[in-house]
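Late entry, evening session. Most of the bench is empty. Finally got around to the prediction I had been postponing all week. Sequence below, unchanged from the version circulated by S.P.
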Amino acid sequence: MKDKRFTLVPDAPCPITVLNDVSLVRLQFGERTPLKNVKKRARVAKGTLLAEHGSPNVGDMHASIDGVIKDLTSSYVEIQYEGPPPDDPETQPGDLAVPVEPVSFDGLDEIGLGKALKRLGIAIRPFTRPCELFIINCLNPEPGMLYTQELLAAHMPVIKAGVAFARRLNKAPEFILALPEGGAASIEGAGVRHVRAQYPNSLARPLIKAVTGAERTEHVTLVRLHNIFQLGLVARSGLPLTEQVATVFGKNYLAPLGTPVQTFLDRQGIELESGGSVILGGAMRGVAISGLRRGLRKVDDAIQFVPKGSHPELEDNPCINCGACLRACPMRLRPNMLSRYAEFGQYESCRKEQLATCIECGMCGWVCPACRPMQQHFRMAKFQLGMTTFQHRLRGQ
C-alpha cells in the first residue's frame, strides 16, 4: 500500500514566488577565499565576484543584491540593500560597485565553457563526469519538497537551456529525463523514464536502478533538476548565479542567494513554536540549524519546520532485534548491526558490513520502535573511517 507520508508528488500546484525585494542577504563563504577588496562598508553590485574556490569544479561566489557590505567575518558576508549602483559611480580604491557584463559562451570548447561557468558560480563537476548515460532527476528529492513539477511547468525554457549546456559539457550518448509516474515533460534528444514517486526512489542509487534496472552506477551520471535549472539561468543570461529555487515552509520561492530564514518567516507571517527545529533540506536527511539569520545557499533546496512532539525523539536505547530496519532498508543492509558497531566505535566492522553502500535515506531510523539515532551513527562512522583513510595516506601506508 502506498504511504502518503512518503509521496514525492504534491496534491495541488504550488506556484513559485519570485522574491526580488530582499533587503539583506548573508552569503556563506564555505571553503571559498574572499577577494582582498571585499571589506566592510564597500559598495557592491549584484553579480560582483566576492570569493573564489580553489577547485575548478566548485563555483565562485557573487553578490546576490546591490548594496553595501554590512558585516564580514571569516565565515560569511552580509550585504544590505541600498539600490542599484549609479550609472557613473564615484569609485573609490577597492570599490566593487561596477556593473556586471554578461559573458558570451559562443565558440567555447568544453574546457573553456567549464571555466566560464565555474567563474559564474556553477559547480560543474556533476556535469563533466564521463558516462554512458546522463539522467536528469525530475523527482522532488524528499517528501514536503514541491518545486520540481513547477519548474517543469513554468520554467521549461530555462530547463532546456540547462540541458543544452549539459550536453556541451558531457558527451554521454544517451540523456534521460526521470519523471514521476504520470508526469508529462519532454526535451528534444532526451528519452523519458517514469519512476514511482515514492521516497526513497528519488535518491541516486534507487533512482538509477529504477531507470536502468541495474544497481551498477559507474557508467551513469545523475543530476538533479534544480542543478539543471541553475545551469539554465546562467546559460540564458550570461550572468553569475545569484538566486536559488527552494521549498520554504511549504511554499516555493525563487530567492536571492543568502536570503535569511527569518525573511521567509516574515513573508509568510509565521511565528515558530518553541521547541521545534528548523531543518535545511528535507525532514528525512536535513540538518537542523541554530539560528534564523542563516542564509539560503546554492545547495539548499528546502527549509522546513519540524514542530516539537511531531516525531518521536531519538534516544540511546538498545536495539530490540525487531528487524523493522532490515525490511525498510532499500539497499538491503543490516542497519541493526551497523548501528551497533558504530555506537561502540567498531568502525572496521562497519566497513565489513558495507557501510559505504548506505545512502542515508533515514528509513531505518523512521521505522525503529526503539527510536535509535541510526542515521547519526552511520554519519559518524563514515566520518571516522574517512579520517582513518586520510591518516593512512599521510603516513604513506
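Two things to note before I forget:
The CA atoms of residues 260 and 266 lie 10 Å apart.
The chain has twelve helices and 17 strands.
Will write this up properly tomorrow.
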